[in-house]
């Protein structure tokens, strides 16, 4: 049975933590869920202390009742493996599981996620719990998905304890084989860091000054893999005991420690948590980047929005509410970017504990509230378009993003601490979003042949292999746009021979002589606008200069290479210039927006599948907007699904359109 068949359409629901409430409340919960169209809930994320109150003494009776009631109501469960927050007895009996910070502080229990990812004791206790859980719930009619852990690395992404040090050394031995290879990779001849044995190597604990950058970079990779190993231990058990139940975990959006690309193919579905800030007018653009990345990480498959807030969160300095319509708009936005499920944290607002001021689908004030009414209305709306589930998003522009490069770029001792990988990606993704162009966000090793234009906002770290892949893409007729400080170092943070752009030099038709990072707040005149952050002294070697600074230094170049073109941008132009630069590259590549002539602030996205084509229109503004359609389409959210040639979107409004109404498709 496919995921879509199991849910019968799009998934809708949230984290359900009824343990916080008297048992009687569950009857109301289930009734309200049914009324609100909830078909999927995540259960048991914080259940460990309850199901294993003492070592190896399992008591599933509480969750049995919850699972049975949900099954009876037809609600599918994404059952958590309960390992995200160890119970107090475990930390008391085995304090060695507690994580240690870079400066040697032991993190205490009393919050959550207080475990060292490399701890054999933690891993063993987690594995035993998962074995018991999977064996107990195999075949349960409510069990639809396994939710492994919870937001890996959200609070503890790296641990610097002795156990982690041993695990890091094992990882380094596997990677380098012998210590001389490590010395060469880490350039340890500098600063007298030459090792004569792996046993001398430590995690990059707090040191008098910059720790070796290659050591820091390897530690980030190692820490990512230590967390991933925790996931894999659990997933292997689940796949053995319940081979038909899909396995997922929930990644955080824009989460630096966890390399989603290196985990995604181990998931049946990519799950993502997304908490855009309602106070930030462009946060939906950053969310879009995260969604396109989640989809791109799993071959374009539909992904699940596993958590979002119904209204405010409680963990920002100031926690803005989602004004009327915004929760609906941002939920549909996830679907526009390929999500097949829209879930929230959490179902009923906590009475006590750390998250009582985090909004929920059923607020403290009860179901007769704006938030709950909007939740229930969304549930009804999603249930009305089941045919969207399983359809796909296809684009002909790719933006490249890479965790290794992110880690390396933001280490200490760089030319400027102003370069942040996600911001740099947004400097390119934002104008593409505004131009109405659909984008796939992909890792540098992805197959680029389907794309007309590939944009590289900043890949400071680019391996020879990936650089040659990009050059090959261009020479075979692809169009590439690369921005500054790309292809500077190899996988060990060693500068490419000859400097930047290393193995991309021929394809770009230039070389960089000197980086000129801007002073804080410094702005340069460029064309009829400005630029900031960065400049480079570039020597062209065949590339044409499309735009130059007043002193003649190139700002944008274009090189013909093979049958394709490669542009290079040496600075951060203002938004208007960047949009024009990208528009020109798109035009040359023949890449089209989803819909021509869209009014400002309206996003259009297409999903196709099952013989149908869907067009989603999202008004991200606080004013009404009218969109003329190129041909009549059925308005699937309007009563009777009428055919329309024009759509007026109210502020924060959404339209879902299709060429055929459902009856004509089926
Ligand atoms: C994360 C966690 C949830 C909850 C939310 C609150 O996403 O997974 O348990 O704490 O944050 O926003």
UniProtKB/TrEMBL annotation:
Its EC number is 3.2.1.23. GO terms for molecular function: beta-galactosidase activity; metal ion binding. The keyword Cell membrane does not apply. The active site is at 151 (proton donor), 307 (nucleophile). It is an enzyme of class 3 (hydrolase). InterPro entries: Beta_galactosidase_C, Beta_galactosidase_Trimer, Class_I_gatase-like, GH, Glyco_hydro_42, Glyco_hydro_42_N, Glyco_hydro_b. It catalyses: Hydrolysis of terminal non-reducing beta-D-galactose residues in beta-D-galactosides. Residues 601-657 form the Beta-galactosidase C-terminal domain. One of its GO terms (biological process) is galactose metabolic process. Residues 15-384 form the Glycoside hydrolase family 42 N-terminal domain. Zn(2+) binds at residues 116, 159, 161. PANTHER family: BETA-GALACTOSIDASE GANA. Belongs to the glycosyl hydrolase 42 family. This is Beta-galactosidase.
